[in-house]
Specification:
- The complex is a heterodimer of chains A (about 300) and B (about 325).
- Helices cover about 70% and strands about 0% of the residues of chain A.
- Chain A is built from 13 helices and no strands.
- Chain A has helices at about 1-20, 20-35, 35-50, 55, 90-125, 125-140, 145-155, 160-185, 190-195, 200-210, 215-240, 250-255, 265-295.
- Chain A starts with a helix and ends in a 13-residue tail after the last helix.
- Chain B has about 325 residues and is an all-alpha fold.
- In chain B, about 80% of the residues lie in helices and about 0% in strands.
- Chain B has 13 helices and no strands.
- Chain B has helices at about 1-30, 35-40, 50-55, 60-75, 85-120, 125-140, 145-160, 175-210, 210-220, 225-260, 265-275, 280-305, 310-314.
- The longest helix of chain B has about 40 residues, at about 225-260.
- Classes of the chains: A mainly alpha (about 300), B mainly alpha (about 325).
- The interface between A and B is large, with 54 and 63 residues.
Chain lengths: ~300, ~325
């Protein structure tokens, strides 16, 4: 008996090492097949960790002036230098991830819900409703995005919540178009007809049969959209209509009073912009790889995020 | 062909009507009353109601809309609440600047993107392809205002040279006038170039897989002929259709780029007008931009029909 237990104890760990859990195995395959996608995922994870663990990762608070260290170059104490108000850039960049992540994820969650409602109802109901909705989406999409968003932000006033609301409305229009297309092709499937023939109520058909089959599309659209939203948020903050100070937004860090000091302290210009670029790059790469893996039909349809 | 043309025109009309409604309503939702702001400046009389009446803001909103549409159709966009000049006049001064900037940007984008897209597709899954594709995603990820900032900041540190900020009139120095647009236009074109390159690559790959292309190869045609003569034309059709969307993107970009490079174009004018709640100006610019974009989309559709006979005859 003891011998068996011993044998089991020695065999067990070996078997675990070889038979990775399915999720880990899938992850491993993804990294091998899509190295650039894996790089994107890594950047996204770094950003999330920075956002969640900001108080532990940052050395100072984001609006703390450190006496006697105005515009210090990057070094051991200040990894990314300090700005014209003697604040530690590294801490500000780390806290800035919070703004980008919050705006990005909440906006995408909200806009995906709106887009699902518009896209699926448009595809399912069809007819005049579909035509009317699509014309509105057309008109909405033919506006330059910054014009809509500037007008909306001016209507609603600056602030985190308003920023999220106006960005959601904007993103929802283009996502709704993609989701409608995907929903139309899902509805071609015989199981939808079967469900209808069995007398399943419309709402149930939509929620149980149509929407779950749209998830691959939704995930792809959302991931690529996240990059676009982060870019849009930083552009707005750059123009001064985004997240109000003192909350550090990467876009706002490149604008405003600091601009006149940048020629003497170029690190003030370099790091926040690099942070925006890496974050957006991460989401774009990840989104591209996910699209190739989850839904090859969508390949080549995207022309990139709004900017 | 004529039927297709008519159909496209008819479809464009509801888009324009809806767009005009959006254009008219949006600025009216702005918080803070322009009238109140103007009175605080004490330059426009004392009586709120009197001023409202003068500006026509006391009438019901739908009457204001129809009056506005009527005026627009006769070319009267109202006058700026702040500069007191007509919006048509203001836009007339600024439109050429933005048109030149945007036109140059889209030209740069096409010149850069299409050759790289072709190369990337023809040499798919080689090192060159990977580099080109990664560069395209970088191009989509890097904010234009950051590149513009670096272009201003870094040369100053390295070589003590800064690109010229501010505006030179055409009449003063035609050469300097055109030259000042090159840098901003290049920066503005980067994102569009990335999008166009990706689409060119994807579409060309699709076409290269088709039977008639294999036939062309089998006939022993040279690579240049197969790719450029047989494949490219079909691959570029979808690319042409997104030029309209790219144009809208580029206009968004001008709001930021014109502010950074201090060019007095429409983008910067719009931004200022929004901050000052200058309704007629906001409406005028939005309407003009949307009309240009709808018109461009129409042109793109026509071009589409020229390129692809299947559409013409269906």
């Amino acid at each position: 008996m003891a011998r068996y237990i011993e044998a089991a104890a020695t065999v067990e760990p070996v078997r675990h090492a070889w038979a990775l859990p399915r999720a880990a195995h899938a992850l491993f395959l993804f990294c091998r097949r899509k190295p650039l996608g894996a790089l994107g995922a890594f950047l996204v994870v770094v950003m999330l960790v920075m956002a969640l663990g900001a108080p532990w990762i940052a050395h100072y608070s984001y609006d703390e002036s450190i006496p006697g260290s105005r515009m210090k170059p990057p070094g051991a104490q200040f990894w990314m230098g300090t700005d014209n108000l003697s604040r530690d850039m590294w801490s500000r960049v780390v806290y800035g991830a919070r703004v980008s992540v919050t705006v990005g994820f909440v906006t995408i969650a909200l806009s995906t819900l709106i887009a699902l409602a518009i896209g699926v109802s448009s595809a399912y109901i069809g007819g005049y409703y579909d035509m009317a909705v699509q014309r509105v989406v057309d008109a909405w999409m033919s506006f330059p995005y910054l014009v809509i968003i500037l007008s909306l932000m001016a209507v609603l006033g600056p602030g985190l919540l308003n920023l999220i609301l106006s960005l959601s409305i904007l993103v929802a229009a283009s996502s709704a178009r993609v989701i409608r297309g995907a929903a139309l092709s899902v509805m071609e499937n015989p199981y939808i007809e079967a469900a209808r023939a069995m007398g399943t109520p419309h709402l149930r058909v939509v929620l149980r049969h149509v929407v779950p089959n749209l998830m691959a599309t939704v995930i792809i659209v959302a991931t690529i959209g996240l990059g676009g939203v982060i870019l849009a948020e930083s552009s707005l903050s750059f123009l001064g209509l985004g997240v109000p100070p003192p909350r550090p937004s990467w876009g706002a860090m490149l604008a405003g009073s600091g601009r006149s000091f940048m020629q003497r302290a170029p690190w003030m210009a370099i790091f926040p912009g690099a942070a925006i670029s890496l974050a957006v790059f991460g989401f774009n790469m990840l989104g591209d790889a996910l699209r190739d893996v989850l839904d090859p039909r969508l390949r080549g349809t995207g022309t990139g995020p709004a900017r | 062909m004529r039927r297709y043309l008519l159909k496209r025109l008819v479809v464009a009309i509801p888009s324009l009507i809806i767009a005009s409604l959006i254009v008219f309503t949006l600025p009216r939702l702005l918080p803070g009353d322009a009238v109140q702001l103007m009175l605080e400046e004490k330059a426009y009389g004392k009586d709120v109601d009197d001023l409202r009446h003068k500006l026509g803001l006391d009438r019901p909103i739908y009457i204001q809309y129809f009056a506005w549409v009527g005026n627009v159709l006769t070319g009267n966009l109202g006058e700026s609440l702040w500069t007191k000049r007509t919006v048509t006049e203001e836009l007339g001064m600024r439109l050429p600047i933005t048109m030149l900037l945007g036109g140059m940007a889209i030209c740069f984008a096409i010149i850069i993107a299409i050759p790289i897209g072709i190369l990337s597709a023809v040499r798919a899954d080689t090192m060159r392809d990977y580099v080109a594709r990664s560069a395209a995603i970088v191009g989509l990820s890097v904010p234009s205002f950051w590149i513009a900032t670096l272009v201003i900041v870094l040369p100053a540190i390295w070589w003590g040279w800064t690109p010229h900020l501010g505006f030179t009139e055409f009449s003063k120095s035609p050469g300097a006038h055109v030259l000042q647009f090159i840098l901003p236009a290049l920066i503005l074109g980067i994102a569009s170039a990335a999008g166009i390159m990706r689409l060119t690559r994807a579409m060309l790959l699709e076409v290269l897989r088709q039977d008639y292309v294999r036939t062309a190869w089998a006939k022993g045609l040279r690579e240049g002929v197969v790719v450029l003569k047989h494949s490219l034309k079909n691959a570029l059709i979808p690319v042409v259709t997104i030029l309209g969307i790219q144009l809208a993107q580029i206009f968004s970009g001008t709001v930021i780029i014109e502010s950074i490079f201090q060019l007095p174009g429409m983008g910067r004018f719009l931004f200022d007008a929004i901050l000052q709640r200058d309704y007629p100006v906001i409406q005028g610019i939005n309407l003009l931009v949307v009309s240009i974009i709808v018109l461009m989309n129409l042109l793109v559709d026509l071009l589409y029909a020229v390129l692809d006979p299947r559409i013409r005859y269906s």
